[in-house]
Specification:
24 helices, six-stranded antiparallel sheet, eleven-stranded mixed sheet, 31% helix, alpha+beta, 31 strands
Length: 759
């Protein structure tokens, strides 16, 4: 069949392989991106349309009034970028080419896709502002560290700093002094502000990933190797759209958000790169002193800035929201009142929220140039165009010559003296921090060990002149990668594939000795059964594991939270899983630290652990029977995929599972679950439903980039009639891989689309 993109430089073609990957073969890089845009539109048009609505703060106009709160919150902080200019970028030509292909597909539609009919919406064309908004939205939603500061600030002020100071990396004496200085306003912080961050869910949004690289000195081939697996919710369609672009000698394969010409992870013949969520702290909370319509500054009282945001609402009249700002950011309490979330009147102290990108302009083409880099150094130059990077990620790039660089790819404050982990006094200028320079965010270059890794952990330690992460994820996955990379002198592609599937849980190894010691003091028969099973466990979270059936539901019951609540007698503790997910780094050892106030309640800790484990044993018996020899982690822990519209007839077939799966949040073969846990459940209910994990797995050896190993969770399709939505699921679930062939003559062809040059 013949297709057209009016702006094309020359004829080109898209070859769809049998896995659903579009291979664009063109004579120019611009035409390759035009093909990428066209293919993304074909498979993911509704996903693109929807994500742009969310990024632009226009979800209520598309989906209805329940999204007013979300739209207003994002508009208040200029997440869409509409309150700043859209600067020019050296990569705009790529963004434009991509948009030309995407919009050519929109114009070619003879029939509106069914999602649009369902939502009573019409497809539209897209522009540079949409791409820039998508970049900014990615930074905004990945890690909402300000909720941790809110919860911790109030808990520390109410109960004492020492209960939680060990949770904050690098907690300083000045941080401690701030808690004392701001004690009264911190005690009165409204925890309902968390609902601004998470308006629809009772669990935090979570984004993770694993990523590591070795230089040629550590690979069997003598060339660098990369492994990357980004962690995302399991949805149909997949979070990313995967494409291969070819223009003569230039090849690029990678994963991109549909509608965006930015390969978040991928490789060319010259470089390979991957990323993980950085848990980068790009927010600051300020306590502001308010008097009428003014706020206190170091130089005197200043008038609050006020503006009106108008939110279009589907089927309803436009909603007007009044936004009040200090020079730091939006005042949260008045915003909540505007949204009907609180009746709190203006008090002497209110809370403003600063976001590092709120007044910083970002371009559309800033990240599009990355696959054109010839070296890791050039990659870094592209990453920080005009000293701005609209991401919050750890990124590792290695080139064919084994030059390796690791970046904190973000725009963030350089905090001095304080970590920023607790609210700051808004009337002191010294807490108005400058933004980091790119050279401060190149955090590792050609390490002597020959490898680099990130897994949502603290990647900095005491290095650098300021702190990047305040609330990282648990370090178990990162430590396991390091452990494995130190076990061999040379690695193959197969070794890296095995590492991505590894199920040894180092957190369990650390926790179990103390846990078992405490449980051994109990005479309860159920607790003693748990002692026996956990003592025999190898800490591998396989689907066949018996002990995993007890250990993970025990953690799920958040005995830590129950212990904290019992000691502190504060209902705010119930918000910890939502408002402060980083507290998952608190383990038994943390509570038994000498000189910590928790140690004074050791007997309560022992009692709660024993009681909670007894309850878990009882519940597992209800789900799996009394014969523990027949217990299997996979019988509790199952994965399910579905389309958001699967309950409707048109999309009913777009469902997968439930299927047994191993892993946990702290294993390299990562799987995050929710659910009520074991016990009496309805017939079709999964006690521990896995909803989040590797969206795809990629291993590439730059000695042979034409034969990388990869597999997608589900598939690359997104159309309701696409055969590519689910076709990789079985292979992915088995822990197997496909070999990605890039040469035109080696591609396993499914369909060929030819694009003519329009004269």
């Amino acid at each position: 069949m013949k297709y057209k993109v009016v702006e094309a430089d020359a004829p080109f073609e898209i070859v769809w392989d049998k896995l659903g990957i579009p291979h664009v073969y063109a004579s120019s890089v611009a035409d390759a991106y035009r093909g990428m845009g066209y293919a993304a539109g074909y498979e993911r048009l509704w996903q693109i349309h929807l994500s742009c609505a969310f990024a632009n703060g226009e979800a209520a106009a598309l989906l209805g009034e329940r999204f007013i709160q979300q739209d207003a919150f994002q508009r208040a902080f200029n997440v869409h970028g509409g309150l700043t200019e859209l600067p020019a970028s050296d990569g705009d030509w790529i963004a434009d080419a991509y948009l030309e292909g995407l919009n050519a597909y929109v114009r070619s539609l003879d029939e509106v896709p069914p999602e649009f009919n369902h939502a009573e919406a019409e497809p539209r064309e897209f522009n540079r502002a949409d791409i820039a908004a998508r970049y900014r939205f990615t930074s905004w939603f990945q890690h909402k560290s300000w909720t941790e500061k809110l919860v911790l600030g109030r808990l520390m002020a109410t109960h004492g700093v020492d209960y939680f100071s060990n949770h904050v990396l690098h907690f300083s004496d000045e941080d401690r002094a701030l808690i004392e200085e701001l004690n009264e306003p911190l005690r009165n912080l409204d925890p309902m502000m968390i609902r601004l961050a998470y308006p629809f869910v009772n669990v935090p949004s979570f984004s993770g990933s694993n990523n590591w690289v070795v230089t040629g000195d550590l690979s069997s081939s003598g060339k660098p190797m990369l492994a990357t697996d980004p962690h995302q919710p399991y949805t149909i369609p997949n979070t990313f759209f995967y494409s291969h672009l070819n223009a003569g000698s230039w090849n690029a394969f990678g994963a991109a958000f549909p509608g965006v010409p930015y390969f978040m992870m991928g490789y060319t013949s010259e470089i390979a790169w991957g990323l993980t969520t950085g848990f980068v702290d790009c927010y600051d909370l300020f306590v502001e002193e308010i008097k009428a319509d003014q706020y206190r500054t170091q130089s005197g009282w200043k008038s609050l800035e006020t503006r009106i945001e108008r939110i279009d609402v589907k089927g309803k009249s436009t909603k007007e929201i009044t936004i009040q700002n200090t020079h730091h950011g939006v005042l949260l309490e008045p915003l909540m009142k505007e949204l009907g979330m609180s009746n709190i009147k203006n008090e002497q102290f209110q809370t403003s929220l600063y976001w590092s990108l709120q007044n910083v302009a970002t371009s559309a083409g800033a990240l599009a140039l990355l696959p054109t880099a010839k070296s890791s150094k050039e990659f870094g130059e592209f990453l920080f165009e005009n000293e701005v990077c609209p991401l919050v990620n750890n990124i590792i790039c290695v080139d064919k010559k084994s030059n390796l660089e690791r970046y904190i790819a973000t725009t963030m404050p350089v905090r001095k003296g304080v970590t920023g982990s607790v609210p700051l006094p808004g009337w002191l200028d010294k807490y108005d921090f400058s933004l980091a320079k790119p050279e401060q965010l190149l955090v590792e270059e050609n390490p002597a060990c020959g490898f680099a890794l990130t897994a949502n952990n603290d990647t900095m330690g005491e290095k650098g002149d300021f702190y990047i992460h305040n609330f990282p994820s648990h370090n178990a996955r990162a430590n396991r990668i390091s452990e494995l990379l130190n076990q061999k002198k040379k690695f193959s592609v197969e070794d890296f594939c095995s590492m991505q599937l590894d199920l040894l849980d180092l957190r369990a190894q650390e926790v179990l000795p103390e846990l078992i010691k405490i449980m051994q003091e109990s005479e309860d028969t159920e607790v003693q059964l748990a002692v026996k099973l956990l003592s025999d466990w190898d800490c591998c979270a396989t689907s066949e594991s018996i002990a995993a059936c007890l250990y993970y539901p025990f953690l799920d019951r958040f005995w830590q939270r129950k212990f904290m609540h019992t000691v502190l007698k504060d209902d705010l503790v119930n918000l910890l899983p939502l408002g402060a997910p980083g507290l998952n780094r608190f383990d038994i050892i943390s509570f038994l630290t000498p000189n910590s106030p928790w140690i004074d309640h050791k007997q309560i800790l022992k009692t709660i652990i024993q009681e909670e484990m007894r309850k878990v044993v009882d519940r597992v018996k209800l789900s799996l029977g009394k014969d523990y020899s027949k217990w299997r982690w996979g019988d509790l822990h199952k994965i399910q995929f579905w389309h958001s519209l699967s309950k409707h007839n048109t999309w009913k077939k777009l469902k997968l599972g439930p299927d047994d799966i191993g892993g946990s949040a702290t294993t390299l073969g990562m799987s995050l679950h929710v659910g009520r846990g074991p016990g009496k459940t309805s017939e079709n209910e999964v006690p521990c439903r896995v909803y989040h994990g590797p969206a795809y797995r990629l291993v590439v050896d730059l000695a042979d980039p034409q034969s990388a190993k990869f597999v997608i969770a589900g598939g690359n399709g997104g159309r309701v009639d696409s055969e590519f939505c689910l076709n990789q699921y079985a292979t992915w679930l088995k822990g197997q891989y496909f070999t990605l062939k890039l040469k035109r003559e080696e591609v396993d062809e499914h369909t060929i689309w030819q694009f003519d040059k329009i004269h």
